[in-house]
Amino acid sequence: MSKTIIDKRPALFEKTDCNIWTDPYIGLQMLKMHLNPDFDGASRQQESVRKTVDFILKYIKPTGGLLDLGCGPGLYTSIFKDRGYEVTGVDFNKASIRYAVERRHDIKYILGDYIQEYPQGKYDAIIMIYCDMGTHSDDDRDKLLKNIYSSLNDGGVLIFDVFTERIVCDKQETKNWEYAPSGGFWDENEYLLLSQTFHYPENKAFAYQYNLLTDNESKHFIVWDRYYAEKEITDILKDTGFRQVAIHKNILSDNNFTSNNEMFIVAGK
Length: 269
Hints:
This protein is an alpha/beta fold. The protein has six helices and eleven strands. Strand 4, helix 5 and strand 5 form a beta-alpha-beta unit.
């Protein structure tokens, strides 16, 4: 099988056929990272999860329907279910959803892409944690926000986090090769990985491009990080219809996530 390395700057918000969240092997590695309580690589550490939940509880009704977009293996959904909420979780990592379903039969889990197949129903609170909003193009973000707004009950709240403009202090354009003779995160067998970071300052976005070469094939992945100015994200939400938008910073302690420069947004319908 021929192998191709795509060594060029991607078009803004370019998508690839391969996806790190839906790739069967990488999806399992992502699940392991989610479940590591001492690592921020896929879900934040337990202390940060607790702080995030405490923050969210200040702004949502004491009971009601809650939707977790990008729920992973259910770290947040389980806590909110135990607090009395009727919880739905959505994610397109098959390994994470399988784990979540096996762990809690009293929570509704949906395997799917919430951009293309937004879950039906009405909710009092919708959460989207770990800067997932920034992984989407502006067009997909706007489509998602419209669906979120429509699915919220009157008085409902959307809470999510995104990177601030200060992420540029933590990131720079890079190009690196990695050789794994015995396999690793990207494949169980020997592989060579080209990792590249590209910055699009005029669009407030970073692209992380990966070329994975194994004995049998090559795979091409791109992950996006869209960051925002406070006024920009506030105006986007108000244009969608949200009446009240509040920005909160310094909710979490330093961690080894992509950047510590995130802000939490509370948007009320």
